[in-house]
C-alpha cells in the first residue's frame, strides 16, 4: 500500500517536472 502511494506521488512529481520543463522551453 505504501509502495503504491509512493509510486503515485513520484509519478505526479515527474509529470509536474516534465510539464514545467516544456513550459520553460515554450
UniProtKB/TrEMBL annotation:
Transmembrane portions of the chain: 7-25
Pfam families per record: MENTAL (PF10457)
Keyword set, alphabetical order: Membrane, Transmembrane, Transmembrane helix
UniProt keyword Transmembrane, yes or no: yes
Superkingdom of this protein's organism: Eukaryota
InterPro entries recorded: MENTAL (IPR019498)
Name of this protein: MENTAL domain-containing protein
Positions of the MENTAL domain: 1-26
Source organism: Bracon brevicornis
Amino acid at each position: 500500500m505504501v509502495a503504491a502511494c509512493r509510486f503515485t506521488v513520484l509519478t505526479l512529481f515527474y509529470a509536474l517536472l516534465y510539464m514545467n520543463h516544456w513550459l520553460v522551453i515554450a
